[in-house]
């Protein structure tokens, strides 16, 4: 049993896939770069800066700012996954570790009004290293005054799983966001719906 449950945001708490890919695709098209949403799926789970560094873009900073603004304008396409609110209410201690930075959190997380459920929130602006590096998860665990074996990190990407294991914590796959078990053979748990997590607290 775990003392705290730590969550990723995109694809785990919030169903942001459509808004993230739609907004990036539109911004890139305006720059004359044509990508399908399937070709852009690699950006899910890593920081926006890291994602853009892997694309053929000259001014990454300006593109990133446009992307953040465009994604914020599509917030109506984002929903909290079914069962998340009820699950959070039942968890005694929880945290957030996300690749969103502080600006992205202000525009795309806090407006949903669920941040009060979390005892510690670590975003990409809070550490110099980012997922799959263990630093953000270790910082969250430190803020919770716990050890890695006290927590389980719930996420939907292989970056999340690598982060958890590098930190010495267990990983639970949010199948509702990942939609596949492929590539997650090393996950300690596969949760089909958020309520399944409650059996581990």
What can you see in these coordinates?
The protein has 201 residues and is α/β, with parallel strands linked by helices. It has 2 domains: 4-15 and 79-199, Rossmann fold, CATH 3.40.50; 17-77, DNA polymerase, domain 1, CATH 1.10.150. It is built from 8 helices and 8 strands. The chain has helices spanning 17-30, 48-53, 60-73, 84-90, 102-108, 135-143, 158-167, 175-178, and strands spanning 4-7, 14-15, 79-80, 94-97, 120-122, 151-155, 170-174, 189-191. The strands form 2 sheets. Strands 5-4-1-6-7-8 form a 6-stranded parallel sheet. A two-stranded antiparallel sheet has the order 2-3. The chain is globular. InterPro entries: HAD-like_hydrolase_sf (IPR050155), HAD-like_sf (IPR036412), HAD-SF_hydro_IA (IPR006439), HAD_2 (IPR041492), HAD_sf (IPR023214), PGP-like_dom2 (IPR023198). One of its GO terms (molecular function) is phosphoglycolate phosphatase activity. It holds the Pfam family HAD_2. It comes from Listeria fleischmannii FSL S10-1203.
Care to give the gist of this entry?
The chain has helices spanning 17-30, 48-53, 60-73, 84-90, 102-108, 135-143, 158-167, 175-178, and strands spanning 4-7, 14-15, 79-80, 94-97, 120-122, 151-155, 170-174, 189-191. It has 201 residues and is an alpha/beta fold.
